[in-house]
Amino acid sequence: MAGIDARRAAKEALIPKGGALIAGTHGLSKEAGLAVGVGLVWGAVGVHGASMRAERGMHKRHCSLKSIPVCHGLIDRVIRMNLDVESLRVFMAVLDHGGMTRAAERLHLGQSAVSRKVQRLEERVGRPLLIRDGHDLRPTRDGRVLLEDARAIVELHDRAAARLQRSDLTGTVKLACNGEVDARQIASLLGTFRHRHPGACVEFTLDHTGSLVNRIEEGSIDVAVFQVTDEVSRPDDITLWSEDLIWVTAAGEPNLGPSVPIVDFGEHCYYNSFTLPLLDQSGIEHHTVFSAASSIDVLAAVKAGIGVAVMARRYLDVDVVEWSPPAPIAALPTVHQVVRTVPGERPEAVAALVDTISNELTSGRTAA
User: Fold this and answer.
1) What ranges do the domains of the chain cover?
2) Cα 207 from Cα 176, distance rounded (Å)
3) Angle at 191 between CA 185 and CA 196, to 5 degrees
4) Distance CA 193, CA 200 (A)
5) Cα dist. 118→157, 173, 278 in Å?
6) Mean pLDDT estimate for the chain
7) Per-residue pLDDT tens over the stretch 218-258
8) Does pTM surpass 0.90?
9) What confidence category does residue 190 fall into, taking pLDDT thresholds of 50, 70 and 90?
10) Beta carbons within 8 Å of 314's beta carbon, 6+ residues apart
11) Residue 263 pairs with which residues in a beta bridge?
């Protein structure tokens, strides 16, 4: 009788009912039941631990999964299949974004790495998951079935990982950045920080470099992200990236006249402190015709042919080219985008924000 009861218990724990896997009868949560049920079909990550928890629960009722040869053998095969979460994530991305190349860009992986993960997934499943028709990819019948389960597995994994990453940090951190940091990047990193540290608050403002230097010295802000040259950098600055500055103008070399029209970043433009003296030293007449607060606005003015500006080399494209001055000018310095904090020991919330900024803003970027 004990063997029959054990088989019935295992069967009830793993049979789909109404679209969900019933596990509550044996003390498992709905999520644990999902992990075990999907694992028996595809070999989901973590099924070994789930089966051991089920075994411990059944042992209290005087039965064990080890007494069920058929079920035990099936679980062994599932464990050997061992589908990992990251391979499932790559498989999803390939189908969601229409191919290996876009999936690689989305996941910040090389295309060869994406291809290997998909191939390994197919090898572990033992069946083809994608139909390759030239550059087009679409799921096979098994691929469509796995895709639905993969979404559930990845969602559960990410939810569990997010919960474990959350901290008990509290307090308010005042952050300010210059216009060289994209607003979308700022929004992303602030969202990441809030998710990991829900008890902490960040107050963000946008400001120019000159003001940020003064504010961090006064202690009116806790963290600042801005540009510095080698001459004014500090040993405790955290460098996010470095890049060369160049003079730029609109393609086609528009007639700028005897006095060069300058496009800059306004009254407090950090570049003016070293660029305008270089023009004076070379005897090049100049006057300011357009001032803006952000790189996007300055770039728009340059593209419109309004004047010459100093910008990072990465802004060059078919519409923006390097300016050829009428007389030789000394080379512009390399600038460094850095994170600077108030001198002294960093509070935990400040240190956590600095780590988030460093991780988020350096991802996928290379130095000049």
Assistant:
1) 2-81, 85-165, 171-368
2) 7
3) 130
4) 9
5) 19, 42, 55
6) 79
7) 999 999 999 999 999 999 999 999 999 999 999 986 667 78
8) no
9) very high
10) 243, 368
11) 290
Question: Phi and psi for 363 in degrees, rounded to 5?
Answer: -65, 120
- Nearest of 297, 304, 296, 302 to residue 323 by alpha carbon: 302
Q: What are the residues facing 54 on neighbouring strands?
A: none
Contact 180, 295 (CB under 8 A): yes
Element (H, E) at 171: strand 171-177
Question: Which residues contact residue 147 at a Cβ distance below 8 angstroms, ignoring those fewer than 6 apart?
Answer: 91, 92, 95, 139
CATH of domain 85-165: 1.10.10.10
Label the pairing between strands 200-206 and 171-177: parallel
Collapsed DSSP state (helix, strand, coil) of residue 364 = coil
The pLDDT tens digits of the residues spanning 45-91 come to 333 333 443 444 444 444 444 444 445 555 566 566 778 889 999 99
HEC sequence for 210-261? HHHHHHHHHCCCCEEEEEEEHHHCCCCCEEEEEEEEEEEEECCCCCCCCCEE
What are 12-26's pLDDT values in tens digits?
A: 444 444 333 433 334
3-state percent breakdown (helix, strand, coil) of the chain, nearest 5: 50, 20, 30
Q: Are 152 and 45 in contact (CB under 8 A)?
A: no
One-letter amino acid at 202 equals: V
pLDDT at 258: 87
Specify the DSSP element, H or E, that contains 288. Answer: strand 286-291
Q: Which of 193-202, 249-258, 280-289 has the lowest mean pLDDT?
A: 249-258
Amino acid identity of 20?
Answer: A
Distance of CA 359 to the CA centre of its chain: 8
Q: Is the pLDDT of residue 208 over 90?
A: no
264: helix, coil or strand? strand
3-state secondary structure of 138: strand
CATH fold of 171-368: D-Maltodextrin-Binding Protein; domain 2 (3.40.190)
* Reduced 3-state DSSP string for 151-180: HHHHHHHHHHHHHHHCCCCCEEEEEEECCC
In sign, the C-alpha dihedral spanning 349, 352, 358, 360 is: negative
In the prediction, which pLDDT does 105 show? 82
